[in-house]
Amino acid sequence: MNQLMIWIKKEFIESIKTKRFLIAEIIFVLFGLMNPLLAKLMPKIIGSTLPKGASAAIPAPTSLDSWTQFFKNMTQLGLIILVILFCDIVSHELANGYLINFLTKGLSRWVVVLSKQLLVWFVWTISLITTFLVTVGYTNYYFNDHLSRHLFLAVFALWLFGLLLMTVVVTGSTVSASGMKGLLITGGFYALGMFSTVFTGFKKINPFSLINQNMQFLQGKQSLGEYGVALAITVILMLIGLAISLILFNRKRV
Amino acid sequence: MDAITISHFQKSFGSKSILKDVTFSVPQGSIFGFAGENGVGKTTTMKMILGLLKSDHGQIIINGQQVRYGHSVTNRFIGYLPDVPAFYPYMTARQYLQLTAAVSGMASSQVDRQVTSVLKLVQLKDDRTKISGYSRGMKQRLGMAVAMLNQPDILICDEPTSALDPLGRKAFLDILASLSGKTTVIFSSHILSDIERVCDRVAILHDGRIQVLGKISTLTQNHAKRSFQIEFVDSTDLERFLIQTDLPKESDKQTRTMLTIQEQPGQSIGDDLLADLSKARIVPKRFQRFEPSLEDVFLEAIK
């Protein structure tokens, strides 16, 4: 446990020194600012491209538009940026031989994997909280309505899915010898998962529903409780991914 | 007593057999050279001693305890310096050593004192310079500091001098020589002059087996031959000398004016050669005696 604390601290310092954490935070703050602003400006932008008179038909923006932007940015950009930033988190250490000194000094291999996993989960959680808080603040400032009733449940679903994707990032990086291969593994998982949402019959058990149905959860049109199996499968997949990383890393030549 | 005992060790990568049957032991306190050509399996052997690679067959005993893959119990006796030590570039030497000390479980009250001590041992400045700004030689010395941090009984150095310039190499070998008698050192290298300079014993690995093992002084006496080289003023002198001397069978006429003669074990031909030169009234341009070296032993072993 002592080694785990030491290595988590090392991973956290490394993410600061290598600017990965800073880059993630800056991008996610910008998302937080952009979400309500784009929602506010979008009708005007669209209106300016339409003929006179037609723009009057565009409805006034609401907080739902801001949260639509939030979920779109998080799932289409935010998560992908984090995947790119951390796709070589394990392979980089192995390829450069950084771990030999520490493994020969008694560092347990599971400590390396678990601390990296905890770091990427932490960075995702902090990044999401940052964007969320900035979006909440500006959305309330621009749109003081009460349409977004189940905000926390909708964001919780996104957070849990993000944890799964960050687990796949670490697994992909452990399996592969380079960041590019790790990126391809995570990208493949994401692409296949998004494709699987076509089969609507499985949506209640599909973890990708957690990022597909956010607006439905937000407005209370669908209850997150109905997706209990999808939530459970997401957690199970995370545990399986972590177990694969631990087993594979234990067999890796350093 | 032996610090390390390796018995009938075998290792293959795929269909390629690297170590076929490796057996040797390293006496406590000795500086033990581990020589062999590039790619012969020296690093593989080192990594197996450290439990970083699985063996196919055989066992390694360190200070009476068996090495097991993935378990670091025996590593508490060992300091390891890889051929190209890699460090987190954003750290300073002190930060890196502090992290290493913490991971190894060193008591926090000892860390600063021990870090200062090893930095002094390897003559590395304790300043705010990031490791990214270090030269190759400085990184090698930091690697040595890391290896020595826990005051190990055994130090394993895997080709530590191969990429150093002559000054860096000298400095490094001096540090290694200073450990003689205090720490058991395994010094793996293909640079035989380095091994000869600091080691008292050597094992030569070739074709997956230890071909030669023992004290360097004994091996050079028994395996290698002393030789003499005579350079004559012209070819006529050389021909006259060959008529005069009765040692032409062991001679090897290298050029028109140069003759190299190898001494057979138990023979002493130096005086005879000088006498033959004198009898033939020849004053050579140069007369030189070559002492047997580890290189001769090595070349003999891998024949």
Keywords for this entry:
heterodimer; A: 254 residues; mainly alpha; B: 303 residues; alpha/beta; Rossmann fold; Alpha-Beta Plaits; 2 domains; 6-stranded mixed β-sheet; 4-stranded antiparallel β-sheet; 10 helices; elongated; ATP hydrolysis activity (chain B); ABC_transporter-like_ATP-bd (chain B); ABC transporter, ATP-binding protein (chain B); ATP-binding (chain B)
Strand content of chain B: 25-35%
CATH topology call of the largest domain in chain B: Rossmann fold
Count of distinct strands of chain A:
0
Count of extended strands of chain B = 14
In percent terms, what proportion of residues of chain A is strand? under 5%
Oligomer: heterodimer
Low-confidence stretches of chain B: none
- Category from helices, strands and their pairing of chain B: alpha/beta
Please identify, by name, the CATH architecture of the largest domain in chain B: 3-Layer(aba) Sandwich
- The fourth-level CATH homologous superfamily of the largest domain in chain B is P-loop containing nucleotide triphosphate hydrolases
